[in-house]
Amino acid sequence: MRSIGFKRHQLTTVAAVSLLVACGGGGSDPTPLPPARGSLVETPTVVATLTAAQINTTTATTGLQGLSGVAKCDVKVVALNYNTIGVAGEATNSSGVMLVPSGTCNGASALVAYAKGTDVQKPRTLANPADSETFLLAAMYAAQGYTVVATDYLGFAKSAYSFHPYLHADSEASSVIDSIRAARNAATAVGASLSGKVMLTGYSQGGHSSMAAHRAIERDNASEINVVAGAHLAGPYNLSGSTKLTNAIAGVQFFVPYLVTAYQKIYKNIYSSPSVAFKAPYDGYIESLLPSPTLTYTTLITTGKLPGANGETPNQARDAVFQTAFTTDVQTNNNSPFYLAAKKNDLLSWNPKSKLMLCGGVGDPTVPPAVHQAVMKADFDSRGLTNVSSVDVDAAVQATYGIAGKAPTDPTSAAFAAYYGNYHGSYEPPFCHLQAKVLFDSVK
Q1: How do the pLDDT tens digits run along the chain, 444 residues long?
Q2: CA 436, 439, 441, 444 torsion: positive or negative?
């Protein structure tokens, strides 16, 4: 589900307020107001410019150009650091990237607000032209004339927040909403001209985040942010339903401990001690493992911090990490604290006003569409909504990466392991981004 000065600013603000009070002749010091959400902590910085020729060379070499099209614009990569809020509404900050079309592209552009997939690397920022996710956004959207803003989320890169509230709908939404405000605040300084139209998208965890932001904006911020479409890609919208699965998802050893420990930090009632949920040795360090300052998906496994080095199946990996009693309770008890926390963060039972598209591939072993996308679409359909569509890109994934155009079927083969190991993280995203761009082109 993958896919990185605040204090100085704060102290300067407090010092300025104190000086004004002192000059005014005394009295009780007023409590300083928190920074405005979406205001900039630092001056936005252009860290690189990707020329259209550079983008075309890379997309042609990698085969992406058939989906992205030929670049129409150069793209400025701008680092953002902006004020936002934490899970309890407390003031904090997040960083991110703004991708600004430039060169031959002129005129006002729509703003695409993007939420990234699950990240385990705490230092990682999307304000990096060499980042594969950033380049995909540049090629698919910014080089085609869209301005893009993408958050690093709370707890990553320059964010001072003490942890990442993984798959917590409200703080995901506020991170995305405040990134939109930050992009608007930075626009003049970086030469961006915005039309006022906003599109939302995200992949994997980001699909959950972008839909949470879509819901929150239409409910609370419609007069400020004109969302014209949302494309939510391979997201885990039905979190409570996923806790009832008896067979574990691919990547369970990363995603489920990440979620359990995040909800413990948010709700404080998931377990009384780590050993109630986690087996040794994981119970000794799991709460501080993710996101990691040094480890990647690969090195989390190769260093033995998480299981997987010996070819464990998803069920074996789950059972190596979690106490059996904890797993059973979550699966069978609707009063399980973890189930109830997941239910709070489901994205069912709301009615989008703008166009909304769901995208995924039926073969996805990490965020199975049968559990999330299909349930989400059925929920929308149950209320007769006609502005919601659902796309399955599995045929395109099979045709491009399968054997003779078909997914491998022998679960013991190396081809099977490679195909399904890459499905969610590498194969599926570009095809869903293409579908998102088709939607956005229709409303821009």
Answers
A1: 544 333 333 333 333 333 333 334 445 667 788 999 999 999 999 999 999 999 999 999 999 999 999 999 999 999 999 999 999 999 999 999 999 999 999 899 999 999 999 999 999 999 999 999 999 999 999 999 999 999 999 999 999 999 999 999 999 999 999 999 999 999 999 999 999 999 999 999 999 999 999 999 999 999 999 999 999 999 999 999 999 999 999 999 999 999 999 999 999 999 999 999 999 999 999 999 999 999 999 999 999 999 999 999 999 999 999 999 999 999 999 999 999 999 999 999 999 999 999 999 999 999 999 999 999 999 999 999 999 999 999 999 999 999 999 999 999 999 999 999 999 999 999 999 999 999 999 999
A2: negative
Structure tokens at 136: 């995909």
Using CB atoms within 10 Å of the CB of residue 440, give its burial: 0 to 12 exposed, 13 to 18 middle, 19+ buried. Answer: buried
d(CA 224, CA 205): 25
With contact defined as beta carbons under 8 Å apart, do 148 and 112 qualify? Answer: yes
Fold for 6-238+346-443, please state it: Rossmann fold (3.40.50)
The DSSP H or E segment spanning 94 is strand 91-102
Instruction: Give the N- to C-terminal CA distance of the chain in Å, as an integer.
Output: 29
